[in-house]
Amino acid sequence: MASSLTCAGVVWAFLSFICAATSCVGFFMPYWLLGSQLEKSVSFGTFRRCSYPVRDESLQTTVMVEQCGRYASFQAIPSAEWRICTVVTGLGCGLLLLVALTALMGCCVSDLISRTVGRVAGGIQFLGG
């Protein structure tokens, strides 16, 4: 297999992929904030939550749902700041993954990545981070 990358480029490609994968896993996990509510352990991230309170109308009380799940809709995310964080973090993860997969393809295909493309990809990674 021919490569358009130098040794430093190959290391960059693999580190980019590892960082992008780690960022995506962190984005999808609901363990950004940990705490307790109604004597139960709770956690939530930008669009997922675990062990959350729900109003039980039949009992006229609040009960804890002890399962993980995503918010029912984008508007169900608790605040505008968390919605912005969800969009920005999702876009950043997408950009990081795009650059990482392109860099990995550059390890296998000759003349895919030039010096200019590498610089632009580095700038995209900076924005994605």
Automatic annotation (TrEMBL):
Instruction: Please provide the record's keywords in A-Z order.
Output: Membrane, Transmembrane, Transmembrane helix
Q: InterPro entries annotated for this entry?
A: LHFPL
Q: Name one GO cellular component term.
A: membrane
Q: Which Gene3D superfamilies match?
A: 1.20.140.150
Annotated localization: Membrane
**Where do transmembrane segments lie in this chain?**
87-109
What is the membrane topology noted in the UniProt record heading this document?
A: Multi-pass membrane protein
Name under which the protein is recorded: LHPL6 protein
Q: Does the keyword Transmembrane helix apply?
A: yes
**Which Pfam families does its entry note?**
L_HMGIC_fpl
Q: Any keyword Transmembrane?
A: yes
Organism encoding this protein: Upupa epops
